[in-house]
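The pair is listed for reference:
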Amino acid sequence: MKRVVSTLLIGITCAAAGAVAARQRGPAAPEPVALGALAPANLAKPRPKPPFDLTGVWLHGGGQNNGFQFSPPPGFKLTPAAQVHYDAAQKARAAGQVYRDDIGQCWPAGLPLIMTRYWPMAMVQIPTAIYMISGFMNSVRIVYTDGRKHTDLDIIVRTYNGESVGTWEGDTLVVDTIGFRGDHHWMDQGGVAIPAGEQLHIVERFKMVGPQLEIEYTMTDPEHWEGEWKSTKRFNRVIDEDIQEVSCLPDLNEHLQSTTSKTQVLK
């Protein structure tokens, strides 16, 4: 009995000593708040000067070896889930039909397609981020360059342009993008109809080559294809364009054959 009482007294004494020590140390320091890209304290942090500034309006350059589509590479191999759509699209095209023209139905183009639409893209570069607004549906894309990590995939809010985090490597901006939505999202809209899913991972390497912006894409999506797909696109800076407010409304698209006619294959 004496041994039990002694043990209890020792435990109480230790707990009391711990409480006194905690009071002497004061309240625990709060965890640091994650600063937004536009927070003055974040903007004021010292950072190396970037090798180039993308602020301006850019337009896909077109021309030889610079098509707007992100077509699969030669010898590509699809998973069964993607092969179903690929085969259905080929059948529809042979019959003069359009397979699942989601963009014509006002679904977002999503990355990577949004980068090469026929409309210009305004970019505003600040020390913590690059804000992009497309003339196509006013689609917004943000590349964070303030050193943050990706949001955990368990809680990330998935979007069609994904979550983009950029880091500077010499004269190149490397942008890593994950967190995509996997519905109504395509790699080659109106072409071979290969889906883009939630496992899509895109790494872009932004680099200035003379007056042009060159972006090298490396894309993986194990849900829909095997290995890596690579593509390089070039963009020109334009000085006589501004981005206007644009809304995609179904009634504005009624003149598009793929939107309302029986050639639209939805299933």
Summary: The chain has a mean pLDDT of 87. The first strand starts at residue 56 and ends at 60.
